[in-house]
Records
---
Amino acid sequence: MVSSAALPFDIRPLLGDAIYLAPSSGHFERDQLMTSLAQAEALISLLSVQVDEQLLAAAPRLRVVANVAVGFDNVDIQAATRRGVAVVNTPDVLTEATADFAFALLLATARRLVEGDRTVRSRQWTGWDPGQLLGADVFGTTLGIIGMGRIGRAVARRASGFAMEILYLNHHRTPPVEASHGEGPRSVGWEELLLKSDYLSLHCPLTPETQHIIDRQALRAMKKSAILVNTARGGCVDEPALAWALAAGEIAGAGLDVFANEPAVHPDLLTSDHVVLAPHAGSATTSARKRMVEICANAVRSVLDGHRPPTLLNPEVF
Ligand code: GLV
């Protein structure tokens, strides 16, 4: 159950009478959501909703949680499984949109696009100046990717068009999983990734293992000219450490789409000229968001009809 205003597309045609659209004009307050869930059999949840033991306990009739996101760190899958509640997410349909956005952030940060926009808009631009807004090269540099899953690989495909050397790591502080030779993305260890990457882009899920994977120590180990890009989850980065690293010149910049306590942003990141900020918009294309909502609505329909939905995360319940 979601507020009708919270979803950009009308799901009623997909769900018929099965859904109750709560008469809210925006995001639910948690208390309001828990009350509304007392009779609900399905919840279409946004990633800003913590679907935890407490919330599930308030929804005794619940059969399915459809999370409008590929990431599902906001859902306690084990608690849902214990209660026999199916959980689905929305993989694949947002892969290319999110990879485009990661690359947009990388380019915008490297080439100081937002600063340039501000300069022109504020009428401070006085004409072409050979020393103005000098940025960093992207073509021919080295991109490090943490999390070489669907989105990580899609970013790597874009980077190869920029003749970037691609290094990647799937698990924190583990040795390379395979020997790579020749062209193409190369699996490396943690130290090599930090040492060699000109750009480091995060595409891992938020788990206890990846929580603060980018901490003060990691930032210190990166190149002083490096740029961090995060379109994964804010919790993967220790934000105070990042603010410190940017101010101290330990890294050169950051392109951030996600934050630890959204919509709050660390105050020092808000004022830093070395950061490009986006409002968790990685998958925000009309077609990707429409397909995400459709997956969720169809999954709800399937579960309520007794069928297994394609993107089920806890097959044990079926
Ligand atoms: C967005 O962050 C998602 O996980 O889909």
---
Amino acid sequence: MIKLAVTGAAGRMGRCVVQAVHANPDVELSCAVEREASDSLGLDAGVVAGVGGLGVAIDSELAEQFFDVLIEFTTPGATLNHAEHCRARGRRMVIGTTGLADPDKERVRELSGEIAIVMAPNMSVGVNLCFHLAGVAARTLGNDFDIEIIEAHHRHKVDSPSGTALRFGEIVASELDRNLDDHAVYGRRGRAGPRHRSAIGFSSVRGGDIVGEHCVLLAGDGERIEITHRSSSRMTFASGAVRAAIWCMQHERGLFDMQDVLGLNCSGSASDLKSSR
Ligand code: NAD
């Protein structure tokens, strides 16, 4: 039985991960962690997640807990601290937190030289299939189509564009031999001028309880293609994270993404992501 730790256990994603762990007979919850000021400290993680008592009280410390893999959906700062902890104790890690700055991603990449880490801005199987489809579309359509990436999320989301939208951008940029930093355009306002043909545009919508929607729009002369994914439940991300935790037990070290976990081998994705993280 694989022992899992969950950080951010009382958060929106953390509660779903506890539910997904409870539903999977191959894994068990060994510890659940929240930030020091959380109201949930001392409560049973299963009760907080709505699946009934699991005998695991939510703690503020990961330090003394035993686990095989940590599943992390918190904040970038907490993620880095927990990644250092996992490296020091030789534990594997699944990182779902988004919004990590480039130096943080670089540190995660360094730590993966000693432990196995799966890091993905979106752990749903459907989104990862769309990553693959977006790569095929960009490769097939080449420079004749304008590419815009539109995403929508709930009102609480703090980072934008979403990590998933940026990942779509990295994939299409890689297929078109463009550096995303040089070609990304984030929102438009006023007299922004005509669209540059090589731009990769991003637009973000925030509102209500939208779990997550992404559309890669490829607009040409006389036709357009839209690759759209809509999430209606966070359980899709949570189940993917548990699947990634089980999968990474096969690896001692290295940085992986969901393309690796799912065997999708999206062209130009995993290796580029690893170098850009
Ligand atoms: P949330 O705010 O509901 O939950 C985050 C939780 O982390 C909170 O309960 C908070 O108290 C806790 N936390 C903060 N600092 C901590 C610390 N030092 N130790 C332990 N716990 C700590 O947010 P959420 O909607 O669950 O999203 C969390 C992250 O996951 C965000 O970055 C979001 O973008 C990302 N996310 C990723 C995926 C994916 O598939 N990769 C899917 C959904 C959300």
---
Amino acid sequence: MCKVKEILKEKLTEEHYKRLTALDNPRMHEFVADAIELTGAASVYVCTDSEADRDYIRRQAVKLGEEIQLNIKGHTCHFDGYNDQARDKARTKYLLPAGSDLGASLNSIEKHSGVEEVRSFLKDSMVGREMLVLFFCLGPIDSDFSIPCVQITDSPYVAHSESILYRGGYEQFRKIGSSPDFFRFIHSEGEMENNVSKNIDKRRVYIDLEEDLVYSVNTQYGGNTIGLKKLALRLAINKASQDGWLAEHMFVLGAHGPGRRVTYFAGAFPSACGKTSTSMLPGQTIIGDDIAYFKKKNGMIKCVNVEKGIFGIIQDVNPTDDAIIYNALTNPCEVIFSNVLLDDEQKPHWLGMGSKLPTEGTNHSGQWHEGKTDDKGNKITASHKNARYCLNIADLSNRDPLIDDPEGVPAGGIVYGGRDSDTWVPVEEAFSWEEGIILKGASLESETTAATLGQEGVRTFNLMSNLDFLSIPLGRYIQNNLDFVNGIEKPPLIFSVNYFLKNKDGKYLNDMADKLIWILWAELRVNGDVDALVTPTGLIPKYEDLAELFKKHLNKNYMKEQYIEQFTIRIPQNLAKLERVEKIYTEKVSDTPQIVFDTFDEARGRLQEARDKQSDYISPFDLE
Ligand code: SPV
Ligand code: MN
């Protein structure tokens, strides 16, 4: 018997050995055997796609104290360590083989020493613990989009989260036979104290692009540990760039137009800019809220949701603004809350939930009371600003019927939006795919909010809202996006949206609910139902079309003065934005394609010409 099989046979019970070897995949077997040797796991549980195995994981999470059973059926709560509440960007690195260069903006470590370091932290990390081996599929099952994945973890919380967020992949592995083409993730929480990872200073997330393999250790927070989420996105961006498709940090939404028409939109927004709430727009249907793959099929661009669940920010989810999610969070269905406040009756509470919060309870800091501070003197809020909920989209009443379609859905439009108080109009169509990619997606910025560390209102560059996850140089990523629609007769239209325009007194010019109108206008544009006005920056709605949409869908009388204030083309701000973004592509990116600079030049030329002919601020009624 070969060494691999020997290791497996020694550690796995007969039942679990059978489950693993029923998948005849030497590369996967080697991966598991190596993990057993490395981590010294006491036992191994191999999960199939069965409900019984999912149930085992759920029970283990509670039994081991990683989740607390709440009073509503299916609800549990998990706490991450006080200093383990978000993605650790600084310690997430690409393992860089000799001779390769990812550009200065991607965080990397020389491969040999990186592997040595992370493996030394994983060494014996599962002694006395059970190793879970799980199989999932990115994208729908049995689809051209499917990417099989194997996840090894000692955390039933991570396994439970993945079983909510991803489609089971055990049967998919059976189908791929001995193919080496799959993603691999190994995670260990490391040493624990009070049910949380203790050695946060040794928290590491290291990514091996050559091997499609990610190591994660000494952390629990989902963004660092749920392999199929942002860790797989990094592997997928690299794979997509080699194979000519796109992996994007985007929601996918079915926008419902006149008659029974459904037009699908995908959209990218940096954190806390309305991405999940756009994917959940009232009266529309959701495919996904976080990650989408795009492929060319039969002359069309099709997209899928890589996931089947939502790991969403819970802050400000309330019955008025997010009725469907709020309903799921307060009724029996499978939900993992994380880093919320639990009162003494085990009821979860969070900031912005629309009702008064208790003044004491248990949260990520342990026993909590109003006014509690940490050892640095920072006030600890009732729930963490990045507290989350994890649930199945299948449990939401607005799920789109095509969510699991292996063909994907046709992408009618792409939307890019950030938090922008003074530059972009609420909605605008790009003149072309190229202009959309460069002037909207690759020019995306977002203003920091009070919720993030540091100064408020600082614009941060975040191309396609994918900057954190890029695994290839920025210029190459942009070029892939540009080239993607080659040979496609009618590429998706690209739009920018801006929900955050303010007037001079700092007051928002729009209600939150108005975003529905911008998407429904885009829906009409994709289908050629309405004309648009040409501005120096793109194509904007005509007043009459918006007034009709506002009346019909929100029962609002949209006034001309509002339209003028919102859709005035702000030339100085647009020029300043071009300058800021161009500076980044000149100074920080070494492989910017020339077409990016040419497109910036053209855009600048149009703005300057309009300013010279008219003025700095051009009302939409004065467009020529
Ligand atoms: C995001 O931050 O974009 C998320 C959550 O979707 S995380 O899993 O942390 O990436
Ligand atoms: Mn995300």
---
Amino acid sequence: MKSTILVRYGEIALKGRNRNVFEQQLQQNLKGALSMVEETAVERLHGRLLVTGPQEKHDQMLSRLKRVFGVVSLSSVQRTPLELDKIKAGVGELVAAALPGNKSFKVDSRRSNKDFPYTSPQLNSEIGSFLQQTYPDLEVDLHNPGFTLFLEIGYEEAFIYLDRVAGPGGLPVGVSGKALLLLSGGIDSPVAGWLALKRGLELEALHFHSFPFTGQRSLQKAEDLCRRLALFGRRVPLHEINVAAIQKEIKDKCPQQLAITLLRRMMFRLAEALSVERGLGALVTGESLGQVASQTMESLQAIDASTGMLVLRPLITMDKLEIIARSEEIGTYDISIRPFEDCCTLFVPQNPATKPKMAALLKAESELEIDTLVREGLESLKSRVIRP
Ligand code: ATP
Ligand code: MG
């Protein structure tokens, strides 16, 4: 027996000429999500996708498909030929399985194929009377039905089903381009990454460490977070850069209340250099307005001024509690709260500037060999690909 799942998508349909690109990407992403399940296929229909696979793998398929961005809803469907009698037979079978405990129902028909000789209201009434004849105890209840029988008349066949499961919405990963996620081991940046994936960005991740001042645990965390994110998109290349030497230079040569902003500016320069090399079009960070001293408007502006790149901050208006709730939902919270040494918590100044002045930053940076530090930072680059 084959199991068939109808996949609906929303925003894609709005995208006019790009529609084909989006559908292809979604199809490819659905195939990717099912790559571990044997004998599955993903076909494109008119404005829908149809996934088929072995019946015994149905639940596994559904749970994977539910995570694919761009999917608005999913239904397990039964397919029948476009003939009223065959549709009725299929409905009879499907309802036999759903009947126990249900005394009332309604029929909800939709006819995409206008060549089919029955209109939607006619179908509702045909199928409704057929069900009442077959199961005399069943009543029609349009307002509070025990179950709803959905019928969709397509171009080649009809689909009947009893429910819809919500998908995550958003856009298929890949349609918006590629970005570099600045991934610390904290709670925020993985959530920012998930939201970026949700808007169709394909991600690579960059983690800064301060080996030997930070240890293996922070690298392991970054890897585990990437693995989790990969579950929602596809493989995530993870890059690691050592900023210990940069931090030491800043500590030795610059005013300590500017240290965090200066380090951030160096991180952005390194991130930009890596993005150019990898063809990535934006940086994504977990910054949220006002959360800490380095996330005031003035600090963010000072940090942005170090790069010409587009910087996306999906969490900018979110409260910490909202971010935590999301991280629990997507399964990154438990990884994020593991104890670890963050490179930023080393050398933390007592009183970081909340309104760093550009002139003061530039003066402090004139003491640093910026180009050399960036080049040496890049020499420490290590990369690997993390798969779910
Ligand atoms: P997070 O919970 O993501 O660590 P945070 O609230 O601790 O965020 P900061 O430490 O100020 O905030 O970092 C702000 C952002 O800068 C992070 O969300 C992340 O995008 C980036 N960032 C900070 N530290 C690192 C790091 N070690 N490696 C890569 N990116 C980092
Ligand atoms: Mg942090």
